[in-house]
Specification:
The protein has 253 residues and is an alpha/beta fold. It has eight helices and four strands; from the N terminus they run ααααβαβαβαβα. The chain has a domain of 172 residues: Leucine-rich repeat, LRR (right-handed beta-alpha superhelix). The protein has a four-stranded parallel sheet. The protein starts with a helix and ends with a helix.
Amino acid sequence: MYETQNRARTGDEKVVSAPAAKSPQSPQSADAAAAAAKIAELQAELEALKQSHSVVVDELNAKVDALQESLTSALQWAYAVEEIPRQHWLDSGHDKDYADAMEDLLSSMEESIKDLRMGTVSENEFGENMIKIDFDLQEEDEDYIHADHDELLVPYWKELAAALRHWSEYHADGKCLEVEIIYIEMPKAVLDILRPAFEQSRIERVYFENCRHSSHSSGYMADFFKQVLQSNHFITRVSFGILEFAQEDVKTV
């Protein structure tokens, strides 16, 4: 009977075995996991580089497109601009010397515009990039004569303003310009054309040497420089030559 009970008890009992110990990860498996993680990391870096490269390429392409568009516009202007006939100045009551000087002035403006567009602005003796718009004509007593404003000059002023901005954006390479305008009448119409360019461009020195203005436009000249100096912090020097301002205009500047 004891044997039967013992068998019954033994038969009813479940045999509980200890859990099998996990086999340690092999060195090969650890190396494979590390390699997979490294590959994933490198793939993520590669994808980031691709995206970064794509952004840089897009930016460069946009810059090239803008540059090509600007150059195309400049070339179109150069070919489309209506040449001012020499006779125009004679018909306006000026003599042959004045007409010759105006032709020289227009040629120099076209050359300056081209240099600004192409990034070939020459340097002065101090190694500074300089744009000089100069009407060079003297009377018999050696006094200099001013170039009168004419509506036919407006396209030249507009293109000069556009070229200044273009040079500052694409060719400056950290440098600044010196801009000289000498013995030329500068009415409000011209100042309004030039002001945005002078406010936004990389111009360090401005010389409006003996640029004639009428008595009622002296206030415009003062206001021009006030706005330019407030907006353009590259400018370190301004010269007016023998320009005369009213007392209130001096305070404005």
